[in-house]
Amino acid sequence: MKTVLIAAAVSLVVSLFGTPLFIKFLVRRKYGQFIRDDGPTSHHTKRGTPTMGGAVIIAAALVGYAVAHLATLWTPTMSGILVLFLMTGLGFVGWLDDYIKISRQRSLGLRAGAKLAGQSIVAILFAVMALRFGGRTGRTPASTKVSFIRDTGFDLAFAGTALGLLLFVIWAMIIIASMSNGVNLTDGLDGLATGASVMVFASYLIIGVWQSNNSCLRKPDPQCYDVRDPRDLAVVAACLLAACFGFLWWNASPAKIFMGDTGSLALGGALAGLAITTRTELLIVLLGGLFVIITLSVVIQVGSFKMRRKRVFRMAPLQHHFELVGWGEVTIVIRFWIIAGLFVGVGLGVFYAEWVVGI
Questions:
Q1: Could you give the CA distance from residue 293 to residue 285 in angstroms, rounded to a whole number?
Q2: What CA–CA distance (Å, rounded) separates 189 from 194?
Q3: DSSP line for 160-175
Q4: What's the pLDDT band for 359 if we cut at 50, 70, 90?
Q5: Which of 20, 30, 238, 341 has the fewest Cβ atoms within 10 Å of its own Cβ atom?
């Protein structure tokens, strides 16, 4: 628990005090956000606000993780390192996207193919490595079994090792793409994605600690959790929770800085990595319910327009629909935070209920 507390404290300090320094750097370089003309007119006042703030979140999480392990002389685990790798790799893809937007003053950054290729390379590397590093116990950071609250009986390796690896890589890519794009779509209002991410990372801190206290390595029983490094995954979640919390101080309305694709892709990747390594792949649909709803709003809007030439919402993603209806930005953000909190509460309730009922 000491490692968790140190990791959170260091990440919070780095993010809280590092963000204003980064803002000054971005202002000097004139790295401001480009605002689309076809969006809500209220957003035009945000043109020029520093972006790429997700770099601070990534840096704070990495520093917090490193310092916590150095301070407690606890060796980092492959599960924790892989989640941080996924976060950093997708963050780099997002940074390239942000940099092109800023340098060329346009709403389009990386071409769709290049962006997808970058995300895919990082996701594939993560998925392949997650099935290795069995260590002394033989437990790998991930499993080819599809998981909900723990591994289910459905094993993607049912037809052989090679096919199982391929199917797992595809499955992992779906989870990673869904979460990274979900957070990216949610990041449209000041503090919305950051605040929602804080809640989901908090839930993974609780899950990691709970799984560690009931690990099969510590006390084998029918209800134990067969997760390789649950305590270190709790440390990673604590780093990201605190890093987002510190960043939110400056990202809340009126935002002094935006996280950009650098932050949204990184946070979505981290959530996907935590879901895969804690064996809660399907539970993330509940825990990250707000991201799912906002993603579905885009799918519904696009699908309806292509099939019926009619729009369901005034604008997608969903938060912009409510802006055009007349809701204030702060009102939308707070109400969406409430929805995110409700989803997290239901997800944690389901997680705990499964353990109670199984005893």
A1: 10
A2: 10
A3: -HHHHHHHHHHHHHHH
A4: low
A5: 30
**At 147, phi and psi to the nearest 5?**
-120, 155
C-alpha to C-alpha distance for 355 and 198, rounded to whole angstroms: 25
Here the tokens at position 160 are 């052989």
Residue-wise pLDDT tens digits, 38-72? 555 455 456 668 889 999 999 999 999 999 999 99
Residue type, 19: T
| Backbone torsions φ then ψ of 50, nearest 5 degrees | -55, 140
Written as six digits, the tokens of 281 are 């792949």
The pLDDT tens digits of the residues spanning 163-178 come to 889 999 999 999 999 9
Q: Show the tokens assigned to 245.
A: 């919390």
Domain ranges of the chain: 2-358
d(CA 136, CA 78) in angstroms, rounded, equals: 13
Tokens of 316: 């997608």
Name the strand (E) or helix (H) holding 137: none
Orientation of helix 78-104 relative to helix 230-251, angle to 10°: 30
Q: What torsion do the CA atoms of 95, 96, 97, 99 make, to the nearest 10 degrees?
A: 80
Find tokens 């963000």 and name the residue. 19
> What is the pTM for the complete model shown?
0.94
Distance from the Cα of residue 95 to its chain's centroid: 15
With the C-alpha atoms ordered 157, 159, 162, 168, is the resulting torsion angle positive or negative?
negative
Q: How many residues does the chain have?
A: 359
At residue 256, what are phi and psi to the nearest 5 degrees? -90, -15
Task: Kindly give the residue spans of alpha helices, DSSP state H, lying in 187-259.
Answer: 192-213, 230-251
